[in-house]
Write a structure and sequence with these properties.
Its main location: cytoplasm. This protein is α/β, with parallel strands linked by helices. It has 5 helices and 13 strands.
């Protein structure tokens, strides 16, 4: 799971660079001047000569036109053999010309002016990235082989609208940096990786459906309670809860229901400021192999076990006292 941490650090660096670029972009006019795709763009951007479906002819299957100020890609609709298309950093508001590209496998349209991700269903499309647009919902995302969908840094407020009926192949969903406040209604239960960092999530609902989920990122949200996790999440190994509002170790204890949890990130929560933070967490979650950025040592596990045993003894004593109190109350005549 170390690659998850490396990925996160890389993303933080990337965000800083993008912020600087955005400040430059904001200085530009709101309404871009018309700039259609030209023959010149095609000459520059077409590559990867490959056999076509019948094996008797060849065609270019890759096209790239990044940062060209494009507002119109109508010319692309004639290139029906394209499989890989990158149109990032343009001024596109409409992807309708791509509907004729029925061989498309991979599409990247980051940093455009799209307000909708809606496209005609493409039968072989497996990867789409719509990062940093102005998309508000999941309307019209229905590609049957789609395995990886990224909508980072958009304006999405609800996870309603994604359907397992249409997206039964979806395994990776990236929704970092939107305006989502609950996980309720996320109808794609076959996911393996779900990234929801930098939203405004304050409640976890509907997670019991995610029986195949292995990685869940919830960093930088508004979580104070950890209700909502379920024993049915039997594949979850990595959970990132960094920079939320979790105050008590009892809340952390609710993660005991996750049978395969190996790596937990809890730093920058109020509970992480408490004395013996690591030992307290491990006393509730003895199966953890990694907490924050450090591997769990054997000595820590032994110390945590002592804390857990002491807590159990205390609970037993409390239970005895409660029983004695109840029996005394029963014997007192009215």
């Amino acid at each position: 799971m170390e690659d998850e941490e490396e990925k996160e650090e890389g993303e933080e660096k990337e965000e800083e660079e993008e912020k600087e670029e955005d400040e430059e972009k904001e200085k530009e006019d709101e309404e871009p001047p018309p700039c259609p795709l030209t023959e010149e763009h095609l000459k520059e951007g077409l590559s990867l000569l490959s056999k076509t479906g019948n094996g008797l002819a060849h065609a270019y299957v890759k096209f790239e036109a990044k940062d060209k100020g494009l507002t119109d890609i109508s010319l692309l609709e004639h290139f029906i053999h394209l499989r890989y298309v990158d149109l990032s950093k343009n001024k596109l508001k409409d992807l309708a010309p791509l509907s004729s590209l029925t061989q498309l496998l991979w599409l990247k349209v980051d940093r455009n002016l799209l307000t909708s991700a809606s496209m005609q269903e493409l039968p072989y499309l497996q990867v789409i990235s719509f990062d940093r647009n102005h998309i508000v919902d999941f309307e019209g995302i229905t590609h049957p082989l789609l395995a990886n969908l990224s909508l980072k840094e958009n304006k999405i407020e609800t996870v309603l609208g994604l359907s397992h009926d249409h997206l039964f192949s979806l395994q990776v969903l990236e929704l970092r940096g939107n305006k989502i406040n609950t996980t309720a209604g996320l109808g794609v239960s076959k996911l393996k990786k779900l990234y929801l960092a930098k939203n405004t999530i304050c409640s976890l609902e509907g997670l019991e459906e995610f029986e195949q989920l292995e990685i869940l990122h919830l960093r930088d949200n508004k979580l104070e309670a950890l209700d909502g996790f379920s024993a049915s999440m039997k594949c979850l190994q990595y959970l990132n809860l960094r920079s939320n509002g979790i105050k008590s170790f009892q809340e952390v204890g609710k993660l005991q229901v996750l049978p395969m949890l190996q790596a937990l990130v809890l730093m920058d929560n109020p509970c992480a400021q408490e004395p013996d933070y690591r030992l307290q967490v491990l006393s509730w979650l003895p199966r953890l192999q990694r907490l924050d950025k450090e591997t769990v040592e054997e000595e820590e596990q032994e110390e945590a076990e002592k804390i857990r045993q002491a807590r159990k003894e205390k609970e037993k004593e409390k239970e005895k006292e409660k029983e004695m109190q109840e029996s005394l109350e029963d014997t007192v005549p009215e």
